[in-house]
Each structure stands twice: as structure tokens, then as C-alpha cells.
């Protein structure tokens, strides 16, 4: 089956779908994106993803391209046309097409909208979660506005590749004060030996993950203690459990950091439980 993408008003075969070479997303990474998980053909936590999209757009002074109800219809249509039952849908909005000049186009141009979707292999993801994944640490190399979900991901690309080169799944950023911020494409969590769940505060220095926000609710309902604070790689290595969260992986247990096993070197029971409980709390529509 050929894959279908939506590009600025048209549903096209992915092999034909293209954006203008002067799209500012292409030339300046002048755009933002969202990724929603698809479960049973439906989008997970769409309202929260759209709220974050609108915030990212506002922070960059890019116009909202259309009503969110219309964006929803398009995203659902891309999911439907690609016959995705389990997977992800990707939405990208850029400032639009204009002759190359760093300043914003004047007058304004229409933002560009691209939507793609792909199936993920549920059994493969579940098997990875049951094995757990390894992370490395790397120095924070990003601009301070990581709260904006910008398509400017080159630092994240380099961090992820460094992890792969070292035989790991993900890189955890460490800031100049020695604290873990987040992963190249996920939020980072640890669970102490006395059962406290620790993740960095979303006030600054990380992307405020939607999965993270739902997990905060899951933790409360399970009466698990949450501490939103900084932690070091050493505290992670000494923790009972660790995991990462994101829309495409939900909860993925972490079993080692820089080669040091975490806990008994196996996925922890709490991380696996959170993974299991997550969709009971997520909005699926
Ligand atoms: N942090 C970064 C840098 C990310 O790229 C992502 C997701 O792509 C996340 C955190 C997790 O965010 P969410 O749970 O909304 O997918």
C-alpha cells in the first residue's frame, strides 16, 4: 500500500508529496511539529497536543494555519487513508514560503502544513519494553528554548546518533550544572529505592511532554510520590528504576546509564505498570 501525506491542501502519495524549496521550514527550520500516538486508529491526547502546538506557534509568532477542528479532520483522514491502527501521526507547521531572508516575510505568508502517518509494530515495541533500553549521557547542546517543539532538531539528531554509535538507544542531556534534563526525543525519569518518582520540572530546560503530563495523573491515581526536581546521572545510576516517556514509546524502561546497570539491570515493575496503565488515563478520540 502506498503511503499518503497531506501537503498544503492535497492528499498525495508520499513519493510525490513535496514542499517548495523556499519553505522556511526547509531553509531555516522555521516551524514546529507535533506527534500523536494512534491507538485503535484514534489519536491519543489530541487536545493537549493541539494546546502545545498553539503555544509553540505563538512563541514563534507563526499564525495558526486553520481551526483546530479542521486540523483534526485532516490528521484523522491521513490516519484513515494510511490504514493505521497503531502508530503515529506527524503534523508540521512552518512559517511558509518566501524568498530567502532571515527576517519574517512581510507581508505575512500562509503557514505550510504537512501531515504524515506511519504504523508502528506493537509487538516489537512491547518486546523492547520488556527487555529495557540503554541510555548514555551527553552534554546539553541545544538552545535554551527547548520548551518550543521546533523542527530545528540537529542537536537532538547528533545526540541520538552518539547514543547509537555507543550501542545505546537514547542520549540523556546533562546541563552545565551536572543535571539530567531530558532525552534527545523523550522525557527522563528515575525511581528511587524508596519509591519516589523523579523527573525534571517542566518549568524550563525541557519540552513539557504530553506523555509526561498524563503520567503525572497516573502517578497520583496510583498514589506514587512524584518529585519534579533535578537529578544527576549518579543519582540515576543509583536508582531502583529509570524510564523515558514520549508519545511514540509511552513508557520505555531504561536498564543502564553510561554502561552502569540501573537497579538489577532489568525493566522495573513500576515503569512497566505505568506503561500498562497509561492508556486508561489518556484521552483517545
Ligand atoms: N522531549 C523531547 C526533546 C522530545 O522530542 C519529546 C517528544 O518528541 C518529548 C520530550 C516527549 O514529549 P511527548 O510526550 O509530548 O511526546
Unreliable sequence segments: none
Bound small molecules, by name, code or SMILES, are: pyridoxal-5'-phosphate
Helix content: 25-40%
CATH class of the largest domain: Alpha Beta
Family: Belongs to the class-IV pyridoxal-phosphate-dependent aminotransferase family.
Catalytic activity: L-isoleucine + 2-oxoglutarate = (S)-3-methyl-2-oxopentanoate + L-glutamate; L-valine + 2-oxoglutarate = 3-methyl-2-oxobutanoate + L-glutamate; L-leucine + 2-oxoglutarate = 4-methyl-2-oxopentanoate + L-glutamate
Function: Acts on leucine, isoleucine and valine.
GO molecular function, one term: D-alanine-2-oxoglutarate aminotransferase activity
Folded structure, characterized:
- With 285 residues, the chain is α+β, with helices and mostly antiparallel strands.
- 30% of the residues lie in helices and 28% in strands.
- It has helices at 24-28, 46-60, 68-81, 122-131, 154-165, 210-221, 233-237, 269-281, and strands at residues 4-7, 10-13, 31-39, 42-43, 87-94, 112-119, 133-139, 170-174, 180-183, 187-191, 196-199, 225-228, 241-246, 250-257, 260-261.
- The strands form two sheets. Strands 7, 8, 9, 10, 11, 12, 13, 14 and 15 form a nine-stranded mixed β-sheet that branches. The chain has a six-stranded antiparallel β-sheet with strand order 2-1-6-5-3-4.
- Helix 5 (154-165) links the parallel strand 7 and strand 8.
- Helix 6 (210-221) crosses helix 8 (269-281).
- The mean pLDDT is 97.
- Pyridoxal-5'-phosphate binds at residues 35, 182, 185-187, 207, 209-212, 245-247.
- Pyridoxal-5'-phosphate is lined by residues 35, 182, 185-187, 207, 209-212, 245-247.
Amino acid at each position: 500500500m502506498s503511503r499518503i501525506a497531506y501537503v498544503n491542501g492535497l492528499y498525495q502519495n508520499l513519493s510525490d508529496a513535496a514542499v517548495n524549496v523556499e519553505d522556511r521550514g526547509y531553509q531555516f527550520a522555521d516551524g514546529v511539529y507535533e506527534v500523536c500516538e494512534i491507538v485503535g486508529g484514534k489519536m491519543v491526547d489530541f487536545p493537549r497536543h493541539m494546546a502545545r502546538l498553539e503555544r509553540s506557534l505563538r512563541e514563534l509568532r507563526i499564525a495558526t494555519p486553520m481551526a483546530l477542528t479542521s486540523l483534526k479532520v485532516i490528521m484523522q483522514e491521513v490516519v484513515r487513508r494510511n490504514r493505521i491502527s497503531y502508530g503515529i501521526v506527524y503534523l508540521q507547521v512552518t512559517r511558509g514560503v518566501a524568498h530567502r531572508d532571515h527576517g519574517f516575510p512581510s507581508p505575512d505568508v500562509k503557514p505550510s502544513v504537512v501531515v504524515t502517518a506511519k504504523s508502528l509494530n506493537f509487538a516489537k515495541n512491547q518486546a523492547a519494553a520488556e527487555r529495557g533500553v540503554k541510555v548514555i549521557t551527553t552534554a546539553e547542546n541545544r538552545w535554551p528554548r527547548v520548551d518550543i517543539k521546533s523542527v530545528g532538531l540537529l542537536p537532538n539528531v547528533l545526540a541520538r546518533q552518539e547514543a547509537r554509535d555507543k550501542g545505546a538507544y537514547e542520549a540523556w542531556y546533562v546541563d552545565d550544572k551536572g543535571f539530567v534534563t531530558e532525552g534527545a526525543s523523550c522525557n527522563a525519569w528515575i525511581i528511587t529505592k524508596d519509591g519516589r518518582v523523579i523527573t525534571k520540572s517542566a518549568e524550563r530546560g525541557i519540552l513539557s511532554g504530553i506523555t509526561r503530563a498524563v503520567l503525572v495523573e497516573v502517578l497520583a491515581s496510583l498514589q506514587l510520590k512524584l518529585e519534579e526536581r533535578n537529578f544527576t546521572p549518579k543519582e540515576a545510576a543509583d536508582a531502583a528504576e529509570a524510564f523515558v516517556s514520549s508519545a511514540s514509546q509511552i513508557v520505555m524502561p531504561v536498564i543502564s546509564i553510561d554502561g552502569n546497570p540501573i537497579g538489577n539491570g532489568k525493566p522495573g515493575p513500576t515503569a512497566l505498570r505505568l506503561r500498562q496503565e497509561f492508556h486508561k488515563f489518556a484521552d483517545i478520540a
